[in-house]
Amino acid sequence: MFSIIIPTMQKDVEILGKLISELQDDPCVGEIIVIDNACKGMNFADPSKIRLLVQKENLFVNPAWNYGIEQSSPEFEYFGILNDDIIFQKNLLSSTLNFLKSDDNTIGFAGIDCPSNTPKEEFDTYPADTVITFEPMDKLDGYWGSAFFGKKSNYFKIPEDMKIFYGDHYLFKKSLMANRKNYRICNIKVKHLVSLTSASSRKFSKIFKDDRKACIQHGILEYLNLSFWQKLFSIHYFHNHYIFCFLGLRMKFKAKKGKD
Fold first, then answer.
1. Per-domain boundaries in the chain
2. Contact present, 171 and 149 (Cβ < 8 Å)
3. CATH homologous superfamily of domain 2-192?
4. What is the spatial distance between Cα 147 and Cα 5, in angstroms, rounded to a whole number?
5. Which of 5, 113, 219, 241 could bond to 68 as cystine, CB 3.0-4.6 Å?
6. With helix as H, strand as E and coil as C, how does the chain read?
């Protein structure tokens, strides 16, 4: 079963409520850990399965993921880390859990990327079920922050100096370094409101720069931390683009996007 971890700033409690209701009805979910980074508490009509962890101050995203894993019950072997602004089709968790169990020695993480902004009025119904498939990935296209899943024993603690950004990239690469394959969850339907937990303020701009610096120091964004010879000639991949370095120049080319 899954321990589901949801950090929230409570920007839209209605959608969060729809997500929690969906999770409570799912037999694959053993517990729902809600990390309240808004620091003001919440009430739930049905508190079953829910563990509300109210913070004294905003932990930010990546530390909240780490904290959720640490606080989760050892009774449940698998985890799911979700945005607080999504709902999804009913068979997503059961299909993903069965897939992870099929070979948990070589499978690292399975995740989705939700780039589209779903209008709020379309959240009245949950997406219809589809036949879900899983496609191996050697590169992370976009972000996994919307939803990703794995076995708890395969999780890597994200460094403390990475607060909001690049946590998914860190986990993706560490999984590859451990000789595990990561997968894209395909043929799914997810409604995603987008950008409830971030802002374009100076504070977030500074955090982005600091996280980017930390990410380079931890060897995640290799194309920004090149040796002399790599600057002369190298090819790297980042965010669905190939980065071609030649004689000190850097050129970016968009790669063909993988299957949805």
1. 2-192, 202-254
2. no
3. Spore Coat Polysaccharide Biosynthesis Protein SpsA; Chain A (3.90.550.10)
4. 10
5. 5
6. CEEEEEEECCCCHHHHHHHHHHHHCCCCEEEEEEEECCCCCCCCCCCCCEEEEECCCCCCHHHHHHHHHHHCCCCCCEEEEECCCEEECCCHHHHHHHHHHHCCCCEEEEEECCCCCCCHHHHHCCCCCCCCEEEEECCCCCCCCCEEEEEHHHCCCCCCCCCCCCHHHHHHHHHHHCCCEEEEEECCCEEECCCCCCCCCHHHHHHHHHHHHHHHHCCCCHHHCCCHHHHHEEEEEECCEEEEEECCEEEEEECCCCCC
What tokens were used for 215?
A: 């990410």
CB within 8 Å of 249: residues ≥ 6 apart? none
| Structure tokens belonging to residue 104 | 């948990």
Task: Provide the 10 A C-beta neighbour count for residue 88.
Answer: 23
| Token pair of 176 as six digits | 């590859």
**Nearest C-alpha neighbor of 222 from the set 184, 162, 182, 169:** 169
pLDDT, one tens digit per residue, over 10-61 is 999 999 999 999 999 999 999 999 999 999 999 998 898 999 999 999 999 9
User: What whole-number distance in Å separates Cα of residue 134 and Cα of residue 239?
Assistant: 20
Exposed/middle/buried for residue 254 (C-beta within 10 Å: 0-12, 13-18, 19+): exposed
User: For residue 220, which phi and psi values (nearest 5 degrees)?
Assistant: -90, -40
